[in-house]
Amino acid sequence: MNTLPQQLANGLLLGSMYGLIAIGYTMVYGIVQLINFAHGEIFMTGAFGALTVYFYILPGGTSMWAAVPLMLVGGGIVAILVAVGAERFAYRPLRQAPRLAPLITAIGLSLALQEVVRNFYPGADKARAFPSLDTTHDLGSVTIKDADIFLIVAAAVCMSALAWFVRKSRTGRAMQATAQDPDTAQLMGIDTNRIIVVAFAIGGFFAAVAAVSYGLKYGNIDYRMGFLMGLKAFTAAVLGGIGNIYGAMLGGLVLGIAETMAATYINNIPGMQQLGGQSWANVWAFCLLILVLLLRPQGLLGERVADRA
Amino acid sequence: MRQRSLVILTSVLTTGALTLTACGSRDNGKSGDSGSGNTLTIGVDAPLSGENSTTGLGIQYGVQIAVDDANKNNWVPGVKFKVNALDDKAQPATGQSNATSLVGDDKTIGAVGPLNSGVAQSMQQVFTSANMVEISPSNTNPELTQGKNWQTSKKRPFKTYFRTATTDALQGGFAATYAYNGLKKKKAFVVDDKQTYGAGLAKIFNASFSKLGGKIAGTDHVNTGDKDFSSLVTRIKKSGADILYYGGQYDESSLITKQLKDAGVKIPLFGGDGMFASTYIETAGKASEGDLATSVGVPADTLPAAKQFIQTYKSKGYKGDYAAYGAYAYDAATAIIKAVKAAVDANGGKLPSDIKNGLRAKVVDGVQKANFEGITGKVSFDQYGDTQNKQLTVYQVENGKWKAVKTGTFNG
Question: Which of B115, B218, B234, B295 has its CA 20 to 30 A from that of A142?
Answer without folding.
Answer: B218
